[in-house]
């Protein structure tokens, strides 16, 4: 498996984890995602490329799990909001002030 769309990745996570994710529930699955974001922060701080890559993988996996049990199509949500331009200023690249 080389290139897949976000939707296919989410469906794979569904196949692998949907039952367990459903049993765990939204609240605890969100907590796992939040923990993984903390681990991503630490990996980035540690300047460890391999660890950072691993944590990015965990974040998108847990984000997909959370999307699955809340009935959200991640790919559709992302493309609907971020479609070639910034949703706030409508420019590409973004011209919003910091
Ligand atoms: Zn903008």
Short description:
This protein is mostly helical and 98 residues long. Helices cover 70% and strands 0% of the residues. The longest helix has 22 residues, at 49-70.
Explain how this protein is built:
- With 98 residues, the protein is mainly α.
- The mean pLDDT is 96.
- Helix 1 packs across helix 3 (49-70) and helix 2 runs antiparallel to helix 3 (49-70).
- The protein is built from 4 helices and no strands.
- Bound molecules: zinc ion (ZN).
- Zinc ion (ZN) binds next to loops.
How many helical stretches?
4
> N-to-C terminal Cα separation, in Å?
39 Å
Main sheet properties = none
Query: Which shape, going by the Cα principal axes?
Result: globular
Small molecules bound: zinc ion
Round the mean pLDDT to the nearest integer and report it.
Answer: 96
Rg (C-alpha, Å): 15 Å
Structural class: mainly alpha
Low-confidence stretches: none
Order of helices and strands: HHHH
User: How much of the sequence is in beta strands?
Assistant: under 5%
């Amino acid at each position: 498996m080389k290139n897949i769309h976000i939707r296919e990745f989410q469906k794979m996570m569904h196949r692998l984890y949907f039952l367990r994710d459903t049993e765990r529930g939204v609240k605890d699955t969100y907590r796992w995602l939040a923990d993984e974001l903390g681990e991503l922060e630490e990996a980035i701080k540690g300047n460890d490329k391999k660890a950072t890559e691993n944590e990015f993988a965990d974040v998108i996996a847990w984000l997909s799990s959370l999307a699955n049990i809340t009935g959200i199509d991640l790919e559709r949500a992302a493309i609907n909001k971020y479609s070639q331009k910034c949703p706030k200023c409508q420019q590409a690249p973004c011209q919003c002030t910091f």
